[in-house]
Write a structure and sequence with these properties.
alpha/beta; five-stranded parallel sheet; two-stranded antiparallel ribbon; flat
């Protein structure tokens, strides 16, 4: 059996075992808390102290329910997440459903009376323990891949800008468990290549080299004019135990996750969909209001001090309102503490990095720690911005960049944010590539979750405190 196959079996099995241990421990902890702490006085019992054996036996009986529910949420597959935070929402959902099923089972089982408080507590502790154990499994999985254990050997078919981009994007992502062996060209005379990757053959000797190089995955990246080669390539791979993946040449324009949907038996590829449905928008808006309100309360003394410093150290207003473009291309006034001299841009808009000489003494300090951005919490409250999202840009720069940068306008499909995924990854300032920033923004839009927003906010606070650059 291949090492990669062993890992494919072993990691999901390890997750099942760790989840089961976490659930058992959650019941034991909950039992102890309910019957041997102040809870026993707070919630007096009508019956004698229940035997712990009853709870142990019951928890063993209901373990299959938890495993089945977690499996229904697809939580026992490889390469589930990059960060455990991304999996937290599914852990909460699956744990909630499992506890509901468990309590329903108890309702119909009349021979023994189980404490509902224990079930509620077990839900809470199960979420914590499952998250911790899954984090450890994820670290173990990454360690295996980093040591070249269980990785899949991958080859690319086709040499063009698509294959170049695929390789560049995936080659350094060790958490994916992929090792790129090389690439195949259409014929032996083809001199084109993929940077830093070796040529291992042509279409003619594809089956031979797949066996020789022990390739597990074949990524076919062809231009539209070469799509006629796809089915002959599939035919050549008949009888070979490999995964055959096709990357269409229009993947650069896809701005949402590609989905296959069926209507009356006809398969359709959904290339674009609404990034946030109505319920996700409601959850995000509630989170924005609560978070912005809390942060305004916490930072209000700081904002008051900043307002006084700005007012008395340079002539001009305390706040600076600048027109930016947000959701659906609608313009709004973004509020900041004024960090530059009055009329700093009377000769025309400039990027922040180009205006260092125009900052006031206090303004330089505000920019260093990104404190000039604090008033944007009020933009969040009035609904023109979100706590997390692509940073809003001015119309002047949008008109310059929209035709130069692929998918630039896609960032307007969600509200602009006080902070964003590209910013916490160091992609800010004139020295960074706008194309890369857009890719990070689109990744955020496609993969939004409440846990993702929380993670970005925590990373933002870390950047504000420890980064040497203006955030």
């Amino acid at each position: 059996m291949k090492t990669s196959t062993k890992v494919e079996i072993g990691i999901p099995l390890l997750l099942v075992i760790s989840d089961c241990i976490a659930v058992l421990l959650s019941y034991l902890i909950s039992y102890e808390l309910r019957f041997f702490t102040f809870f026993d006085e707070l919630l007096p019992r009508d019956t004698a102290l229940p035997e712990i054996e009853e709870y142990i036996i019951f928890s063993l009986i209901i373990l299959p329910i938890w495993v089945i529910v977690f499996q229904s949420y697809k939580m026992y597959r490889l390469k589930r997440v990059v960060f455990i935070f991304d999996e937290l929402s599914d852990i909460v959902k699956a744990s909630t459903v499992s506890v509901i099923f468990t309590m329903a089972l108890v309702f119909f089982y009349r021979e023994y009376s189980y404490s509902r408080v224990v079930f509620v507590m077990s839900w809470f502790f199960a979420i914590i323990l499952i998250t911790i154990f899954r984090y450890l499994v994820l670290k173990f999985e990454k360690t295996l891949y980093n040591n070249n254990i269980g990785v899949k050997r991958v080859a690319i078919v086709g040499v063009n800008d698509i294959s170049e981009k695929i390789y560049k994007k995936l080659c350094n992502e060790t958490f994916l468990g992929l090792h790129f062996v090389g690439y195949f060209t259409k014929n032996n005379t083809d001199e084109s290549g993929i940077t830093d990757l070796k040529r291992i053959g042509s279409y003619d000797n594809l089956p031979v080299m797949i066996r020789k190089e022990k390739i597990d995955n074949l990524i076919v990246a062809l231009k539209s004019e070469d799509h006629g080669d796809v089915f002959p390539l599939i035919k050549k791979c008949e009888g070979l135990n490999i995964e055959f993946m096709f990357a269409p040449d229009y993947f650069n324009i896809l701005t949402s996750k590609l989905k296959i949907e069926e209507l009356e038996g006809i398969p359709f590829m959904k290339l674009k969909s609404i990034p946030l449905n109505i319920w996700k928008r409601i959850v995000k808006r509630l989170f924005d209001i609560i978070t912005a309100s809390i942060l305004i309360f916490i930072f209000s003394p700081v904002m008051l001090i900043i307002a006084v410093l700005v007012k008395f150290t340079s002539p001009g207003p305390v706040f600076y309102r600048q027109e930016r473009v947000g959701l659906d291309g609608v313009k709004f006034n973004m509020i900041k503490f004024r960090s530059m001299i009055v009329d700093a841009e009377k000769e025309g808009p400039k990027f922040a990095d180009e205006q260092l000489s125009r900052y006031t003494v206090v303004g330089k300090w505000l920019r260093k720690y990104s404190l000039d951005e604090l008033p944007q919490f009020f933009n969040v409250l009035n609904g023109s911005m979100s706590m997390v999202g692509p940073r809003p840009e001015r119309e002047f720069f949008i008109n310059q960049l929209k035709d130069e940068i692929d998918n630039f306008l896609e960032r307007h499909r969600v509200k602009a944010g006080v902070t964003g995924w590209s910013q916490v990854n160091g992609l800010r300032g004139a020295k960074t590539s706008y194309q890369t920033r857009i890719e990070y923004d689109i990744y955020y839009i496609e993969n939004w979750s409440l846990a993702f927003d929380i993670k970005i906010i925590f990373k933002t606070l870390k950047e504000m405190l420890f980064s040497k650059e203006a955030f």
